């Protein structure tokens, strides 16, 4: 239980991570899980829209899973605890992508973000997830991490793209085709 939201322990530019360690707030670990948190917050904005129940439920599950990604990334010692991000989470995203794609026409062009507001917002979340993935890869180049985090984020950006298209289809909005 937190007694106060502010602790003043980070006033010197350091923050605590698992294992009672303190590291710089500019450390790649903090940037990686901070960007995951940003994606989660942006997903919360999407969930304020009127969404079909199946989409709202899976996006809420993703929010909870993003917390697990952040928890794994905040752990500098993988030997201390069991990794939380699992292959089953990745497989669940893949099966949901397959299910949702079955409702969509095949892509024949690149598409631009847009259409319904929720679809547009999900495209934005997708770009944050891609940035988070990049930061997690950078972290993994110098620090041991649960490699499932990278795979999960990679798959999540694909999932968000598909859900964006699905929202547009269900709301009778056309994908916006890239034209030159």
Automatic annotation (TrEMBL):
GO cellular component assignments: cytoplasm
Matches recorded under InterPro entries: CblAdoTrfase-like, CblAdoTrfase-like_sf, PduO-typ
Domain Cobalamin adenosyltransferase-like: 5-166
Keyword Cytoplasm set for record: yes
Entry keyword Transferase: yes
Enzyme Commission code: 2.5.1.17
Domain of life assignment: Archaea
Places the protein is found: Cytoplasm
Gene3D superfamilies for this protein: Cobalamin adenosyltransferase-like
Keywords carried by this UniProt record: ATP-binding, Cytoplasm, Nucleotide-binding, Transferase
Record-level Gene Ontology MF annotations: ATP binding; corrinoid adenosyltransferase activity
Class in the EC hierarchy, top level: transferase
Annotated protein name in UniProt: Cob(I)yrinic acid a,c-diamide adenosyltransferase
């Amino acid at each position: 239980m937190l007694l106060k939201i502010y602790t003043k322990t980070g006033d010197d530019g350091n923050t605590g991570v698992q294992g009672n360690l303190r590291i710089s707030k500019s450390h790649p670990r903090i940037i990686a899980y901070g960007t995951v948190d940003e994606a989660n917050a942006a997903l919360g904005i999407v969930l304020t829209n009127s969404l079909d129940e199946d989409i709202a439920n899976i996006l809420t599950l993703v929010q909870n899973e993003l917390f697990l990604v952040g928890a794994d990334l905040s752990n500098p010692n993988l030997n201390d605890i069991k990794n939380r991000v699992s292959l089953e989470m990745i497989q669940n995203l893949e099966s949901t992508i397959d299910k949702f794609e079955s409702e969509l026409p095949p892509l024949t062009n690149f598409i631009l973000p847009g259409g319904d507001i929720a679809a547009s917002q999900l495209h934005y979340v997708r770009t944050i997830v891609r940035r988070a993935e990049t930061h997690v890869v950078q972290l993994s180049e110098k620090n041991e991490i649960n490699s499932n985090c990278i795979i999960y984020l990679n798959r999540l950006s694909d999932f968000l793209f598909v859900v964006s298209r699905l929202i547009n289809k269900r709301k009778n909005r056309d994908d916006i085709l890239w034209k030159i």
